[in-house]
């Protein structure tokens, strides 16, 4: 089963300190960092971040996948990369929360959103 959880607009920015920040719907913000020997992480952040650069912006979709053939179970985040092209990410333990502030984000070729060929 594939269940759409939410969708909206995202912005991926870089701060003066070279920290990437993923903003969803202009409300929730996550620092996107690379941790040695762990991989990429999203970390909840609750302060306002000034953008030195906008790396990417557009639509996003968040899905929950359960028992689907050829798809990994769990939460899938998809970011519009431009011109109908989407980039997929797996969130094995979901998005970070106030209680669990750090969660892995894993790039994947699995896509639930139709893309332009």
What this model shows, in words?
With 117 residues, the chain is mainly β. The protein contains no helices and 9 strands. It has strands spanning 2-14, 20-24, 28-35, 39-45, 53-65, 74-82, 85-91, 102-104, 106-108. The radius of gyration is 14 Å and the shape is globular. The mean pLDDT is 91.
Spans where pLDDT lies below 50 across 5 or more residues: none
Order of neighbouring strands in the sheet with most strands: 8-4-3-2-1-5-6-7-9
Helix content: under 10%
Number of strands: 9
Provide mean pLDDT, rounded.
Answer: 91
Please give the radius of gyration in angstroms: 14 Å
Main beta sheet, described? 9 strands, antiparallel
The protein's oligomeric status is single chain
CA-to-CA gap between the ends?
Answer: 25 Å
Strand content: over 45%
H/E element sequence = EEEEEEEEE
Distinct helical segment count: 0
Q: Characterize the overall form.
A: globular
Structural class: mainly beta
Which terms summarize this structure?
117 residues, nine-stranded antiparallel sheet
Concise overview:
By secondary structure, the chain is mainly beta.
Q: Any chance you could write out the topology, listing elements then pairs?
A:
Layout: E1 2-14, E2 20-24, E3 28-35, E4 39-45, E5 53-65, E6 74-82, E7 85-91, E8 102-104, E9 106-108
Antiparallel strand pairs: 1-2, 1-5, 2-3, 3-4, 4-8, 5-6, 6-7, 7-9
């Amino acid at each position: 089963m594939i269940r759409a959880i939410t969708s909206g607009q995202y912005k991926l920015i870089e701060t003066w300190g070279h920290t990437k920040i993923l903003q969803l719907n202009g409300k929730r913000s996550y620092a996107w960092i690379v941790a040695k020997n762990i991989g990429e992480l999203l970390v909840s952040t609750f302060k306002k971040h000034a953008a030195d650069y906008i790396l990417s912006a557009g639509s996003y979709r968040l899905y929950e996948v359960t028992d689907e053939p050829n798809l990994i179970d769990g939460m899938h985040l998809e970011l519009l990369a431009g011109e109908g092209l989407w980039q997929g990410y797996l969130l094995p333990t979901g998005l970070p929360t106030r209680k669990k502030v750090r969660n892995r984000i894993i790039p994947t070729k699995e896509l639930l959103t139709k893309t332009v060929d």
